[in-house]
Amino acid sequence: MVIQKWLLFLFLHLHLHVLNIVAQLPDLDFGSCGENGNYTENSTYKNDLNTLLTSLPSKIDDYGFYYDSIGEVSGIMLCRGDVKLDDCRVCVYNAAQKLVQLCPIQKEVLGGYDECLLLYSNNQSIIETPSLSVRYFFSNTANASKPKEFNQELRQLLENLRDRAINGGPFRKYASGNVTDSDFQTIYALVQCTPDLTPRNCFNCLTDAYGYIPQCPCVGNIGGRIIGPRCNFRYEIYRFFADVSLEAPPPTGNDDKTAPTGNDNTAPIVQDNKKARLVIIIIVPTVIVVILTVCISVILMKKRKRKLVDIIQGTLGDDTSDVESLQYDFSIIREATENFSNANKLGQGGFGPVYKGKLQNGQEVAVKRLSADSGQGDLEFKNEVLLVARLQHRNLVRLLGFCLDGTERLLVYEFGPNASLDQFLFDQVKRSQLDWERRSKIIGGIARGIVYLHEDSRLRIIHRDLKAGNVLLDAEMNPKIADFGMARLFTLDETQGNTNRIVGTYGYMAPEYAMQGQFSVKSDVYSFGVLVLEIISGQRNICSRKGDSVEDLLSVAWLNWREETVSNLIDPILRGSSGLVGDIVRYIHIALLCVQENVANRPNMGEVLLMLSSHSLSLPVPHNPQILHFGDVNSTISESSKITDSKSICSSGNQDLITELHPR
């Protein structure tokens, strides 16, 4: 067993270093560089850190945990309780490589992926301290339709899981489960402590973590996560974990409370009867509730989808012959993705993961695997596929086909070899490849793609989740808008709509949409304006908390515009050529026009495209944008529905890297 562990580690180590693909590893889901000092290249700390990180994959125990001090360095690593050992080792190895890349000289670093976390420091107290020391808040920003009832059920579920986890023994302190609230909505949750903690310390750590719920952005929301080096928890309204068989707790000696009398076989019979009655009492009501829930969900789903089906079929007619030509066998997709291996996983969103695949003819594809509870029927799924497949534009990602097999629903897209725009734009090394010529080309391509969706396609399509992560780059760095899973379809004479289900990503959402559920083509215009500011500045438009203050890119852009210091917003990489500054400032001007608070003041995308291409066209003076914060969202607009991809993340560290959960 020891030899197998070392061979696995040796293979991973040599393979990754020989191919030099550290830069191609998945981006961290979270990561931060602490302020506990720096180290130099040839220092003892550097050597000790290399020794620790190199030995990590081989030292992880069978339950995904390891902590140790080597010389000046102390480290803790923990994999989620349902993650397989081999996947855990790969996850930790990837996290170690990316964290060293993220924090090349810092002594204290914390980060990881959904499946694992890693912390190392020059301070041994990180091992000796059993407290929470919360580092990250993650939140799904859609609100529960009945927040009070939702929070009551959530609190009860988390407390029950905590009580189970603390008795997990010396190998794993982990528990997962679910509960159905009064609105027939299932809440899934998991809790976990590092297994070296005592039951009392684990209890205290999780209790402290629960106490942060009212303070973090996740309060009242349908999904949230709090991460610390010693314990963490997460909840969603979809299943995000796998079931695991945990160790049976040691016998207490008090389990058999019925003493035998006379014949020694009497007590077991009495106990069996009690158990049978208990099983009937528990199972029968549960089955009834499940059946009622399914029936109600089916009825609501059919009503909700009927209008979409009518619109699509009214546009495309009954011509569904193209559907068969787009359909792939499940076995072909499974083979192309190597059985959906984690090594081929490109990202994970609320509706399911995305994998890289290679078809038998050598063509590379991206495969989106929708979760089984995505709530989409066969007819609606086929119609959506047929519609999106007919969207043909050089700045839209092309849908190659789909797979519908039992509960499996897969979408097959062309593969973007340069991944998404955010992986270049927000990477300190890769961003240098984006000079102004390329950035302006990307901005123009995105604008042309949106104009096609709004004005030139057979239906008016509002994307509703336009952001850097949903813009893929082909081999020539041409932008291609991706992910139409949240798009809203209009007939050509419709201009706006209203919804109770808010989807998208905070920071990119127009205020009238996030707060009131009102959306139109101007909602995408707002998102485009935010995206342009990100492309020019090289900075994310994220919620950055510093004490009681909140900063974001729109606030900074508007402040610099008012003070006539807008050149401060430009990425330093682009400031080298003074001749380009005027063009860049014009693009900032256009972006500020797009994010104005008054919807009527925003230009449509056709006008935006004209402004971008014509330097002689005079631009109106922009009005101030509305800066949207977490507390601004009106909780009365949300409803009980499947999870949306609205993600907001605020971190508590001063230098934390804040990453969004990957889009659907």
From TrEMBL:
The keyword Ion transport does not apply. Residues 1-23 form the signal peptide. The keyword Repeat applies. The chain crosses the membrane at residues 278-300. InterPro entries: GNK2 (IPR002902), GNK2_sf (IPR038408), Kinase-like_dom_sf (IPR011009), Prot_kinase_dom (IPR000719), Ser-Thr/Tyr_kinase_cat_dom (IPR001245), Ser/Thr_kinase_AS (IPR008271). Residues 340-618 form the Protein kinase domain. Pfam families: PK_Tyr_Ser-Thr, Stress-antifung. Residues 27-125, 132-240 form the Gnk2-homologous domain. Keywords: ATP-binding, Glycoprotein, Kinase, Membrane, Nucleotide-binding, Receptor, Repeat, Serine/threonine-protein kinase, Signal, Transferase, Transmembrane, Transmembrane helix. SMART domains: S_TKc (SM00220). It is a single-pass membrane protein. It is found in: Membrane. This is Receptor-like protein kinase At4g00960 isoform X2.
